[in-house]
Amino acid sequence: MASQTAEAETTEAASTYDQADMPTNHTGLPCPPKQKSWLARHFSLLLRRDRQAQKAGQLFSGLLALNVVFLGGAFICSMIFNNVAVTLGDVWILLAALKVLSLSWLLYYVVGTTRKPHAVLYRDPHAGPIWVRGSLVLFGSCTICLNAFRMGYDVSHIHCKSEVELIFPIIEIIFMSVQTWVLWRRCKDCVQVQTNLTRCGLMLTLATNLLLWVLAVTNDSMHREIEAELDALMEKFSGNETNTCMCLNATVCEVFRKGYLMLYPFSTEYCLICCAVLFVMWKNVGRRLAAHSGAHPNRPPFRLHGVIFGPLLGLLALVAGVCVFVLFQIEASGPEIGRQYFTLYYAYYVVVLPTMSLACLAGTAIHGLEERELDTLKNPTRSLDVVLLMGAALGQMGIAYFSIVAIVATRPHELLNQLILAYSLLLILQHITQNLFIIEGLHRRPLWEPVLPDADVMGKQDAELPRRGSLRELGQDLRRASQAYIHSYSHLNWKRRVLKEISLFLILCNITLWMMPAFGIHPEFENGLEKDFYGYRTWFTIVNFGLPLGVFYRMHSVGGLVEVYLGA
């Protein structure tokens, strides 16, 4: 997650060195800089060439990924709009080729690149936090199980299907197993050798995962096949024969069918997490960190610090959510879900969401009353966290806006539709207020971190101020000031206590709202209102685009809220 630890690039160190050594005259004004030596000029030239080579490598690898995504997107769009010329099998062949190429590079990266001398001199302490890697393993395992269910379903229909179709799930299982293992072990690497090859390999793998996500969002062939088989089964029971491919063993097929439908959202979620991790690794290629940079050396452990009401309210919301989730899942296992269970499901959200919004507004107001400084240091990890938080929020907000249009245009006066309308409006409000609270908290300087100025700012101040001593004395003054600042706020005043209560309450609520769509049947697709209004394929694409982003948003929010809690 986003951290406030100061990191120094080699170029920044050179700039600070030049500015710090600038002489001053007796009036306190800076004198013209001295003529640089041959060694300093040569070193500056090498740094400029290194930066230019790094930018050229990033540009080329980015263009490679862009072209691969456009090619795959053209194949997928052609499959959707002209299924005769470009079939699903053609798309699978293209993706299988990309998986094989990406798999070959992943194995070479582990066996070849990382074992070269001075290959990985630095490891980014902020990349790949434990919750990201845990989610990667969890969703990767579920995606592997999804492909196993798909293979079992295809084998049970082998009498009317091609044996070649079994190859594609096997390739995907191998690719995802190796990818999960490599990302778990190597997500913190800052590679210093074969940088251009590494950037291109990372971008190729990222583009492959992105295309897998696009295909999972738009391809509903398996769902249509399952629905057609269920309809044919009902026709058979009524005495009418059909030409639909039927399963050889109904009991086994039922297990494969339910397992596939339940695990399907995990594949899209897994692809999104892999894209985020691969992008961070791509940004870290060729990056040089300071020798003293570490993973929060002064960071306090996660403790409750006497907070009571936040955990109690959060546990109450968690228990109620688990009860509603279990009741809805039991009802969903039957042939049809009663409307009262939809009412119960949406009523729970209508109670929880406004409470979370009020808590976020109160926390944002308290942030404005705090006397802590804003952290203005450049932090690429925190910037990426903010972008992911804002981007992932678009998933559920998009579904909510589509639901609002469908309800207002059809039957807005029914009780269930009114609950869905209130749920959609409150969901949008909750996402906006929570983003404001988390982003504001991430940009506050934690009390456990020393207040160190940026390298460029420190250099300018040292050049402009009269001579008061050496840089070592200035650093000691800053250290004493930061220790006094931490000591003055070491006790839990009411603002810090309320922030911790709010953060813990929101952490438990987001865990609950993550669990319900991640592991259960989705009411957005099962209530039938939006599906009838927009059509099956359109609503299928909207839901499969928005729900994985919503699950990712809840997970990412938990990580951000933990940072806010520790920094309060």
Automatic annotation (TrEMBL):
Ranges for the region named Disordered are 1-26
* Ranges annotated as spanning the membrane: 59-85, 91-110, 130-151, 166-184, 196-216, 262-282, 302-327, 347-366, 386-408, 420-439, 502-522, 534-553
**Native source species:** Microtus ochrogaster
Q: What is this protein called?
A: Proton channel OTOP3
Q: Where in the cell is it found?
A: Cell membrane
Keywords on record: Cell membrane, Hydrogen ion transport, Ion channel, Ion transport, Membrane, Transmembrane, Transmembrane helix, Transport
The record's annotation in Pfam families points to:
Otopetrin
**Which domain of life does the UniProt lineage start with?**
Eukaryota
Q: Does the keyword Nucleotidyltransferase apply?
A: no
Low complexity compositional bias: what residue ranges?
1-14
Comp. bias (Polar residues) = 16-26
Q: Per the record, what are the reactions this protein catalyses?
A: H(+)(in) = H(+)(out)
Q: Which family does it belong to?
A: Belongs to the otopetrin family.
Topology class, membrane: Multi-pass membrane protein
